[in-house]
Amino acid sequence: MLENLFSVILYFSLGYFSRKKGIFKEDASDILIKFIIYFSFPALVIYNIYHLKVDSSIFFIVFTGWAVVIFSIFLSFFVGKLLRFNKATHASFIMMATFGNTSFLGFPFQLAFFGEEGLRYAVIFDQLASFLPVSLLSPFILAYGQGSKTISIDWKKIITFPPFVTLVFAFLIKPFFSIPEFVLNALHTLGMTVIPLALFSVGFNLRFSAVRERLRDVLIVLFIKMIFVPFVVVLVLVFLGIEFTLPVKSTLLEIAMPPMVLASIFVIGAKLDKDLAVSSVGLGIIASFITVPIFVWIINHF
Question: Are the C-beta atoms of residues 214 and 279 closer than 8 Å to each other?
């Protein structure tokens, strides 16, 4: 397991220490992220969808992902009420306890533990059970935090997001076109740059400045997102007698990811509880190097 994790920790650490040592400018990761979104990620999507076996597991992945999001929203809303958060903190708490880092961290973990086959199912989860929910539901959560009665969903931004457009395109051409091997090899090489570049970018942007002040709230967020909800899902699947096949394990791993970077950006953009959002992402990333391997070890024994 340590061997599987080594590359994940290495790429992440290189990003973190590159910023600390001033090797790159502060905005350097913006270029990497744009390269990932416009080139690496689409290439990864096309390659993996082309090789993906389309069956009932796709429905399971999407249904489970959405069910977990809805459950997490209600759970974190109830917990936030018990903790008597103000609306801004309450909405931020819901955002961070609900949406996971399913691509920038999820993909490297998938490759480390379940190989390229697991990565193919993770691509489906990320786009249809993570990106879509956060895009469609976060405006309602953020509006609640702002006390606003008007809710606006940017449909254009959703349907023009390059990886999502590529996903639809890949499914459309899959039954009709045979992609030449040399093209697939090029797409594979380009797509695999997502892993080191994404982890490097996450490490580069990591900050810990506000964690200590919000430690209690952050720990509750991480407990819900990375421990309680994933294990509830495992217990439900065991109760239903669901076999822990690779698509199921891949889905569970995505569910166990730490809070989403994009969700924290939404919180900051809405001028809600920035410290809670940033601290949850930062501490969640570090915690994932402990919680995720333990979680994978457990689900591998079912």
Answer: yes
Residue with tokens 């990320």: 126
Q: State whether CATH 1.20.1530 applies to domain 2-18+25-299.
A: yes
> Token pair for residue 157?
């931004």
pLDDT in tens, 265-289: 889 888 999 889 988 988 999 999 9
Model confidence, pTM: 0.89
DSSP reduced 3-state for 100:
strand
Residues 6+ apart with CB under 8 A from 67: none
What is the C-alpha to C-alpha distance for residues 202 and 24, in angstroms, rounded to an integer?
Answer: 14
Calculate Rg over the CA atoms of the chain: 19
Least confident range of 22-26, 45-49, 227-231: 22-26
Residues 298 and 26: their CA atoms lie apart, in Å, by 39
Give the C-alpha separation, 74 to 87, whole Å.
15
pLDDT-derived band at 210 (thresholds 50, 70, 90) equals: low
- The alpha carbon of 300 is separated from its chain's Cα centroid by a whole number of angstroms, namely 21
Q: For 149, which DSSP code? A: S
Residue 258 in contact with residue 105, Cβ under 8 Å? yes
Average pLDDT over residues 224-248: 97
